[in-house]
Amino acid sequence: MTGGTGRSTSHVGSQRLDEAALASLLASDTGWTRDRDALTKTFTFKGFKGAMAFVNRVAEAANAANHHPDIHLERYKTVRIVLTTHVAHGLTDADVALAKKIDELERAPLG
User: Fold this and answer.
1) Are strands 33-35 and 70-74 parallel, antiparallel or unpaired?
2) Which residues of the chain have pLDDT under 70?
3) DSSP structure string for 30-84
């Protein structure tokens, strides 16, 4: 299900995020940025296969968490992730948790 912005909607984590927790993530130097009511990050891979493998891993983690981000493949090897929780009209703990999981997936070896 999508909201008016085209970003995917999730019903998990419907409590608004504590701004201190969000500030901690943003200050962690992992590349996540806040764009109004969303978290965004861009990942660049060596090629198309690496980017697609990462997209599939993110999709599996998102599905397991029942929290589905927008995933954009751009210029064949760049992936941009957008996280938000529409039911809460903004960011929630679910967005931060999935952002951290996505960072783990980026660092984990393919296998």
Assistant:
1) unpaired
2) 1-16, 110-111
3) SS-EEETTEEEEEEE-SSHHHHHHHHHHHHHHHHHHT---EEEEETTTEEEEEE-
